Amino acid sequence: MLLMVLGVAFDRVALAEKWKLALAIGLLAGAVLFPLTVLLQTFSHGSLPRILTIVSSALMIGTLAITALGLVLNRRTS
After folding, report:
1. Beta-carbon neighbour count of residue 54 at 10 Å?
2. CB 3.0-4.6 Å disulfide test: which of 15, 40, 55, 65 passes with 49?
3. Spatial contact of 52 and 37, defined as CB atoms under 8 Å apart
4. Could you tell me what percent of the chain has a pLDDT over 90?
5. Could you read off the pLDDT of 13-34 as tens digits, one per residue?
6. Taking Cα atoms as reference points, which of 56, 24, 29 lies closest to residue 40?
7. Binning pLDDT at 50, 70 and 90, where does residue 78 land?
8. Which among 15, 59, 18 has a CA at the least distance from the CA of 37?
9. Cβ atoms within 10 Å, residue 71
């Protein structure tokens, strides 16, 4: 749901198109990988699924933070 709302406001992110593309790919990858790695944790109780879940959640948090920063920067320039 959050990614759909971000999709509407993504044009207002005050970053270069190259960065916007990287953010979009990161958000998509995190949105796909995080639920899959959480499901993987239910089947396998080893350390690898936990590490993958942490990495995918960090990817989502990082890309969301950079997107929010881009929105804030756009507000300051407007």
Report:
1. 11
2. 40
3. yes
4. 63
5. 888 999 999 999 999 999 999 9
6. 56
7. low
8. 59
9. 16
